[in-house]
Amino acid sequence: MKKSAPKLALGPILYYWSKQQVEDFYRDIADTAVDIVYLGEAICSKRRLLRGKDWIGIGEQLQARGKTVILSTLTLLEAASELSALKRLCVESPFLVEANDIAAVQILKELGKPFVTGPSVNIYNSRSLKKLSEMGLHRWTLPVELSANELARFQQDRPENMETEVFAWGRLPLAYSARCFTARAENLQKDDCQFRCLDHPDGLLLSTREDEAFLCINGIQTQSARTVNLLGETGRFIELGVDVLRISPQSRHTVDIIERFSQVLNEPQSPERFNTELESFMPTTECNGYWKGEAGMDQC
Question: Which pLDDT value is given to residue 18?
Fold first, then answer.
């Protein structure tokens, strides 16, 4: 039986944008071929230009346009207030929830609600996947540091009706810290950051002394400087039975990127024809090392 092409998902916005920019962005996304849209704040609880009701309103508009909407939770919880907000989101969400922290997994299990996990939940073996499936996991996202060969082993053993998602485009989420690196770069305290993340709609690039782009700072999150691009692996995704490919939003060209992925997934054509165009959409250069089992920043 012929295997079907994966669906396309748009991950949550990982950066801090103005409310108007966010609303305009999702108005454009409503007209794209993306199947699944993740909404909400996954990085910093101080980013509150949009409240819960705002995200739900955007979600309802996208749902009316045929999109499957998922609300994302914070990745790193540091205060009792954040835990309370997490519980409220899990209880009140009219949509499926993406758990980005094990605390969210536990809350959703207790509520008896199905959920999905993002790439920050460290699922490194089939036993973990089976356990989370018993707790209500519907779809998991492969951690970005795992390779195609490791995914193949997961796919052989994954529980029945479990879906698999792969982070296929965007700056790789690498680490999270209690310290805000953006505030530190501006010589500010975290508690008085003055919301400087708003000045960096695609993060703050960090280069080596040799002036090579190395990392990207995004508040408490550290990302790769390079953009992972796995469009050329479409055939491998289909072979492995991957259900969903995730595109991570950026401040420019996201609609164009979705269009290129959709064309390759739905039409019999080579992804190589889009390489030059896709390179022009990247803030720096590309990488795919982890997927090949090599250093993450390599292009193999």
Answer: 97
